[in-house]
Design goal:
The structure holds two protein chains of two kinds. By secondary structure, chain A is mainly α. Helix content of chain A is about 75%, strand content about 5%. Chain A has eleven helices and two strands, in the order ααααββααααααα. In chain B, α4 runs parallel beside α14 and α14 (about 330-350) crosses α15 (about 355-365). Classes of the chains: A mainly alpha, B alpha/beta.
Chain lengths: ~290, ~450
């Protein structure tokens, strides 16, 4: 019994990690159709922001995690102005190249600033006992955080004026422009929001993984897979894909080995994209 | 003159500041020597080309990943390589000749190991390479170098299995490091082992050794798990460990992603009741990246630690810190580079020349060298060093505290479940790698 509970909690944590590392990409790639190859580096910037805030500024960890989206949102806004703005409406491969270059630059800058083995921060302490097992509080906190963030995003895009304009500007910029939406400004805010979400994801993960300049590159492949299998409903689609991919991967890891878990994630993604070329949400009527 | 070789695009061109002293002393020495030869030649009336070439510097090379993902290991190794050659030159060189180091930055790319090995092989002046970091990079360079009669000294900790007459290993192998770890664990933490290992050749061979050593010592292995290098979510592994209830974890994990294991292990409170021992923890400065409360108590075994208390090490650390005041802790690999150069120097001086077979014979004669890690003696059968192995525990200040020293531990001459190697007997003409049967 205790074993099943622990496996269930571990599945929730895996789903949360996948969701937190994908949400930023869901907004930037899922909604805006910008292939952001530097997504992993925004996760990395978020993780470093949290680490530095805890170690150098001695902020409490919760406050430090909240610094991550602010810094990443700011960096994201600068990136949008410098790299992305000239490329709207061009081919996908243009943004791919530009952001890939950006990813290489940010990675090397991180190495130059932090070195290859920078000191990190520990997981906030405490664990709960379930029968023979112990589970860390923080791994229980992650699913809650992921769910709250997704809910807030849903409210933002569904019920606020900005959310409506953001979707309009992404889906049909010409028409939105004709109707008086200042598309450039809305896109700037949306891109920065996507980067801030990536930063928040990185910040939340930083006490669980070893933060190094390469930390984001572990997640970018899975993030793209999640958003693509999620399909056009960029929020709930990504949520469903995270549950499916993260869940299957963790359960297979639990039953067999971690290698099979990783394999199961890739196989599931391939089969899904083959059977549902438009993603899980391809046939849904909702757009979020 | 023959001594001035073509430079290509090696990094020693790009860094004249560090290299210049060696090169210029070398050239001065060479000028003096050649004018002396010219003088005798005038007297004798014959110009001996061979003699002038003999008087020039001895050319040697190092290949390390100074840039890219492995620079964490490669940069200190190249720094120590350069420092060792400078020290050798300051104390009179080798056979009275200066030594000229050619530095190759392999940029963490395996293909550059093959390319630079070809380049070195085509260069008649270079007789030896001290270099390579991973087993994969060594296997890219080794066959090319040794086929072309170049010596290769490999200074990394590794899984063993090299069986090559022209290749010598300075780093400790799995047998040397895991024997004291298993013994310590059984004495101090219990005999139920759970093995977590990186899913590539090192992890598999290391795990084969762990199983054998634990069985020999009367313990049991209650679980083994191989983790792909790009995994950093260890939820399932940690659940499985709790189900198996071991008393000791043997960690053969490697690389940045795997550091998360120690963190998530501690976050679930497991470090309170289960000991971790590891022959790989610390090489990537894991104790710096992770928080002290997560790593405190992990026990490792290496030949070298910066805190070793012997005069050779004190001098070595002082010289290194003077040149590189901001560098991180000195780990095993750079110290083995130092050992490699000095063992080569002793062998060349004993042989009286750099001719490869006489140098190999001198190496195999087993001359002891007292280096930063204590006494090392080359074992002729395996071409690996017999050396002291130190057990150390991570303390709460991110440092290693020496627990125990096992002196003069012998290296392995077999790969578990596979073949053996005898480089002075049946394998005296071998240039091969023994692969594990896993």
């Amino acid at each position: 019994m205790d074993e099943i509970v622990v496996i269930g909690l571990s599945v929730l944590t895996s789903v949360a990690i996948l969701l937190l590392t994908s949400l930023g990409l869901a907004v930037v790639f899922g909604l805006m159709r910008i292939v952001n190859m530097a997504h992993g580096e925004f996760l990395m910037i978020g993780a470093f922001t949290t680490t530095v805030a805890v170690r150098s500024l001695e902020l409490p960890i919760w406050l430090a995690i909240l610094c991550a989206p602010i810094v990443c949102g700011f960096v994201g806004a600068l990136v949008e102005l410098a790299f992305i703005r000239p490329l709207y409406g061009r081919r996908l491969v243009d943004t791919l190249l530009a952001t890939f270059a950006l990813s290489l630059i940010l990675y090397q800058v991180a190495i130059n600033i932090f070195g290859t083995a920078p000191p990190g921060i520990g997981t906030p302490s405490g664990w709960i006992e379930i029968g023979r097992y112990t589970v860390s509080y923080y791994s229980l906190f992650l699913p809650v955080a992921a769910l709250v963030i997704t809910a807030l995003l849903y409210v933002l895009f569904k019920f606020t004026r900005y959310g409506l304009l953001a979707r309009a500007a992404a889906h049909n910029p010409d028409m939105a422009s004709v109707l008086g939406v200042e598309v450039r400004r809305v896109n700037l805010v949306t891109f920065a929001l996507g980067c801030a979400l990536a930063g928040l994801g990185g910040g939340l993960l930083s006490p669980m993984v070893a933060v190094s300049p390469g930390v984001g590159q572990t997640y970018i492949g899975q993030a793209f897979m999640t958003v693509i299998t999620g399909g056009p409903a960029f929020l709930l689609g990504t949520l469903s894909a995270s549950v499916l991919l993260g869940g299957i991967s963790n359960i297979v890891s639990q039953l067999f080995t971690t290698l099979w878990g990783l394999t199961a994630l890739l196989v599931t993604a391939i089969v899904l994209v083959r059977l549902l070329p438009n993603g899980i949400s391809g046939s849904w009527s909702r757009q979020l | 003159m023959a001594a001035i070789i073509k430079q290509g695009k090696k990094i020693d061109d790009a860094e004249p500041s560090t290299d210049a002293p060696i090169a210029s002393t070398g050239r001065r020495h060479f000028l003096k020597a050649s004018s002396a030869v010219a003088g005798t030649a005038l007297l004798g009336g014959v110009v001996g080309c061979g003699e002038t070439a003999e008087a020039g510097p001895i050319h040697v090379a190092s290949m390390f990943d100074v840039t890219g993902g492995l620079s964490i290991y490669g940069e200190p190794e190249m720094n120590v390589s350069r420092m060792a050659i400078e020290h050798i030159n300051e104390s009179g060189g080798v056979l009275g000749r200066q030594v000229k180091l050619h530095e190759y930055d392999t940029q963490s790319k395996i293909e550059l190991y093959s390319r630079y090995a070809q380049e070195i092989s085509a260069n008649d002046d270079i007789s030896i390479v001290v270099g390579c970091i991973t087993g994969a990079s060594r296997e890219a360079a080794r066959p090319i170098l040794t086929k072309n009669n170049k010596l290769l000294f490999f200074p990394s900790v590794d899984e063993g299995g090299e069986c090559d007459k022209y290749c010598f290993m300075q780093g400790a192998d799995c047998l040397q490091m895991e024997t004291p770890l298993v013994d310590w664990a059984i004495k101090n933490a219990g005999n139920k082992f759970y093995v977590v290992a990186a899913d590539y050749v090192y992890g598999h061979v290391a795990t084969a050794w762990t199983k054998k050593l634990v069985a020999d010592a009367g313990g049991s292995v209650v679980g083994v798990e191989f983790i792909p290098l790009d995994v950093s979510d260890f939820g399932a592994t940690i659940r499985r460990i709790q189900t198996a209830q071991p008393t000791v974890i043997m960690s053969n994990l490697v690389g940045g992603n795997h550091m998360a294991f120690y963190r998530q292990f501690a976050a679930a409170g497991l470090n309170q009741k289960i000991r971790i021992v590891s022959p790989s923890f610390g090489l990537g400065n894991e104790q710096q990246v992770l928080a002290p409360e997560e790593t405190k108590g992990i026990v490792v075994a290496y030949s070298y630690f910066e805190t070793l208390d012997n005069p050779e090490n004190k001098a070595f650390v002082a010289a290194y810190r003077e040149k590189h005041p901001d560098a991180g802790p000195l780990m095993d690999l750079p110290a083995q580079v130092w050992n490699g150069w000095y063992q080569w120097k002793a062998a060349v001086e004993k042989a009286g020349s750099t001719e490869i077979d006489t140098v190999v014979a001198a190496m195999e004669s087993g001359m002891p060298f007292n280096g930063p890690s204590g006494k090392v003696v080359m074992d002729a059968t395996s071409h690996r060093n017999i050396q002291d192995i130190n057990l150390a525990r991570v303390n709460s200040k991110r440092e290693f505290e020496i627990l125990d020293t096992q002196s003069q531990v012998r290296p392995a001459t077999t790969v578990p479940g596979s073949e053996s190697c005898d480089l002075v007997g049946k394998d005296k003409n071998s240039h091969r790698m023994i692969l594990p049967n896993t």
